[in-house]
Amino acid sequence: VALGLYFPRREYLENVYIDEPAGVPLLHIHALKDSHKEVAHFHLCQNLIISQARSHENNWFQIREKTGLLYLSKSLDREDFNMLSVGNWMPLSKVMLYVFLSSHPFQEKECDSATRTKVFLSLINATAPACSSLTARQLCFTEMDLSFHIKENKPPGTFHQLQLPSVHHLCQNLSISYKLLAAEGVPFRYNENTTSVRVTQSLDREERERYELIAKCTVREGFREMQVEVPFLVNVLDEDDSPPFLPNGTDTADAVVEFNRKEGTVLSTLTVYDADTTPIYPLESSRKKYTGTIITDDPWISETFRVEHIFDEIHFTPNGSQVRGTRHEY
């Protein structure tokens, strides 16, 4: 079932300082395709969420529809900060924006696309710090973990840019370069020219559920050099595309019923494996997926015997990597 374009991250974080000039790029949001022909269009809903009970019209932030670049369209001054903060004494105020995604251009005030992600902006009641005062970690990466979710069986595409747009814009006297450290053969490529990371082929969760890479950043200023490394994680999301299977192909179990058996005696068991899904909550959702039913016209059999269904999470190891699945026992 085609579900359309999607975001590889559930939320984004960025800092915004007082008196940063209009036009400063804040962050790059990416979308991945469900089918090759799709073209991504990004749209910003014109409300800043300040708290559960309070919002304000967005006069400061815009997003480029075709590239997903979020930028400052109007400088945020102290008066703006006081208006958007919960209390004037706070050194920091957090607001939230919704970014919407569609394969078609948005109408001007359209905000009803089902596909959206959250952008949390920390408004800091201070001017941007000097680049020389920032650590390598602050110059290279945001506070947010580099963790992504990519659906299996979908087209390849770019899903992240390592370079921080705001740092690149404000700290042009620094040389900041990246590398993506990974085992040979993983389906991800780093482009040094754009600092973007791309998944190069369709993924299969039943082959590998998680990829653990390292993003390495080097900052050079004159003769000084600093390096920092952070985990770069990709989780593969399941599409429920593989049927359940029986161990060793065994689809039959014999049951021998002797006289004077007590109620609750187990007569026979049959095991079914499902590498495609894991036990989910509420538990009834997993139980209903594969039900155990006695098919008979004999009322005595229906009254005397029952099928009980228990299940638990297990791990398969295709190609040496752990993949979660479910064992159903009847």
Automatic annotation (TrEMBL):
GO molecular function, one term: kinase activity
Gene3D superfamilies: Cadherins
Gene Ontology BP annotations: homophilic cell adhesion via plasma membrane adhesion molecules
Superkingdom of the organism of origin: Eukaryota
SMART domains: CA
Residues of the Cadherin domain: 142-246
Keywords: Calcium, Cell adhesion, Kinase, Membrane, Repeat, Transferase, Transmembrane, Transmembrane helix
InterPro entries xref list: Cadherin-domain_protein, Cadherin-like_dom, Cadherin-like_sf, Ret_CLD1, Ret_CLD3
Main location: membrane
Gene Ontology cellular-component terms listed: cell-cell junction; membrane
Localization: Membrane
Pfam assignment, any one: Cadherin
Protein name stated in the entry: RET kinase
Organismal lineage: Eukaryota, Metazoa, Chordata, Craniata, Vertebrata
